[in-house]
Amino acid sequence: MAGSKSILSRRQRSKLIRFLALLSMVRWYNILAMAVALFLSATFILNSKSNWVHTLLDYRLHLAIAGMSFIIMAGYIINAFYDVEKDLVNNAKATIFGKHVSRGMSFNFYFLFNAVGIVLCGLVSWKVLIFNVAFVGVLWFYSHKLRKIPILGELSATTLMITPFACLCLYYMMYNKSIVLYVGFIFAIDITREVVKKLEGLRGDIIYAYGSIVTLLGERQSKYVIYGLMLVTMALIVLLHPIVQHNAFILAYLWAVVGTIVLAFIWLLSARMPKQYSRVHLLYKLIISFAILSIAFI
């Protein structure tokens, strides 16, 4: 009787767990944030705000963003495949869920998502297709080689994060000063987040001999790098100010970023343990999340 009352059978529960594990592996929340950022950029920066309905009804824009989303999900899968041992050291609880996805299953979904992404991009234009075929190759090379090279690993990770914006500019065959500066601002924020993340996961990098800016320079010198990146971010905010000075929402956001960076600086001064670096990492995640939402107000 107890078994008959169960809503899901053991097999169904197993499939559900695997599905949820796969969602966790592909970082669905990051994919959603990226898709929102791309739609907002297309609607409010690369096209006229007054013509937003026409922009959102463009089926090729949807195909391009869906294609890039599948490719990025495949990138997360191959990252998880190469990082499983290191992640068990740095954050064992977070990786237990991912153990429900076998290596064979990971590879199958890696190739499937890349294939779907490339087909969708091919339906947009040949330029978008070629760009994203190259994107697939670079994502694999990053996971296999680049991410283990100090400094280059952090720079390439952030460059890959903003690559979809470049694809969007290619699709519309245009760019403007606003998007260049704003993407530069997001780049500075994300590269800072990457270095903080390396500080947070230093133990796993050392045990498995992963090269990073922190293993190369050490904890103290890496903090100085972060302080320098904070100054670069402040400089970009100064450059953005004339462009958005009549926009109260963006100005409020930028001032909030300044305050958040000051708080992160204070926390970083005394940080020594992974949990302390995790707090700073969370602050930078929040800055990036609100940066994406603020695109609609540029």
Total of domains: 2
Q: Examine the secondary-structure arrangement and name the CATH architecture of the largest domain.
A: Orthogonal Bundle
Oligomer: single chain
Main sheet characteristics: none
Average pLDDT taken over every residue: 84
Order of helices and strands: HHHHHHHHHHHHHH
> In the CATH hierarchy, what is the class of the largest domain?
Mainly Alpha
Name the poorly predicted regions. none
CATH homologous superfamily name of the largest domain?
UbiA prenyltransferase
Give a topology summary.
Blueprint: H1 10-25, H2 28-44, H3 52-56, H4 59-90, H5 92-96, H6 103-122, H7 126-144, H8 152-172, H9 177-200, H10 202-207, H11 213-217, H12 219-244, H13 248-270, H14 274-294
In brief, what are we looking at here?
By secondary structure, this protein is mainly α. The protein is built from 14 helices and no strands.
Characteristic terms for this protein:
single chain; 298 residues; mainly alpha; Tetracycline Repressor, domain 2; Four Helix Bundle (Hemerythrin (Met), subunit A); 2 domains; 14 helices; 0% strand; globular
